[in-house]
Amino acid sequence: WELDHEKLQRTIRTAMRMLDNVIDINYYAVAKARNSNLKHRPVGLGIMGFQDCLHLLHTPYASDAAMAFADSSMEAVCYYAYQASTELAEERGRYSSYKGSLWDRGILPQDTLKLLREERGGYVEVDESVTMDWEALRSRIRIHGMRNSNCIAIAPTATISNIVGVAASIEPSFGNLSVKSNLSGEFTIVNEYLVRDLKRADLWDDVMVMDLKHFDGSLKRIDRVPED
């Protein structure tokens, strides 16, 4: 398994256009919010299903491999989001408060780590290696600017991720079997990747279902589940 960069870029380009459209067609109950949004045009593109990716990769959430995947995948998400915003700026124009902004001064979000490190006198331990062609994107931003003052956010996707059937935002799954309650009712959430792997191991049967229910989804006390 690996990231499909072409599909990711295509999807993010569409999402950023839709988010930029929302700024114009949205209903604003407060005039200050409307004025601020139209002036700065901030959007917050996020993701959901990060845990699903790790399940597909057979990678534990707290492992070094998961950290490396998070680093490379979110670098790609950010890159394509900024790229989409500068493409929109070329097509629709820059946001009105662009002049003098960090973007205008050539400071991208990841560059603010340097500012933070200087402010703290060190003590910012972040892997700053890159896998994308950031110089090409910087050049494009210098020419066309940005359509949106902010592009990325951690998405609050708890409910819609349940509807879609993936893990919420970037959060880990805390159990293999759980029930979520909200105003719409109760939703039983099962780790489908666990079910898939148990089926592959020829361990998925009525007894396993009962054991999982009895132990609240925990595998620790089910002896016939392999260690891996």
Uncertain runs = none
The percent of residues in helical segments reads 40-55%
Strand order of the largest sheet: 1-2
What integer value in Å does the Rg equal?
22 Å
How many β strands by DSSP? 2
List the helices and strands and how they pair.
Layout: H1 5-25, H2 31-40, H3 50-56, H4 64-92, H5 112-120, H6 134-144, H7 158-164, E1 177-182, E2 185-190, H8 192-200, H9 206-214
Helix pairs in contact: 1-4, 4-6
Summarize the structure.
The protein is mostly helical.
Task: Give structural notes.
The chain has nine helices and two strands. The mean pLDDT is 93. 49% of the residues lie in helices and 5% in strands. The chain starts with a helix and ends in a 14-residue tail after the last helix. Strand 1 and strand 2 (185-190) form a beta hairpin. Helix 1 packs across helix 4 and helix 4 packs parallel to helix 6 (134-144). The protein has a two-stranded antiparallel ribbon. 17% of the residues are buried. By secondary structure, the chain is mainly alpha-helical.
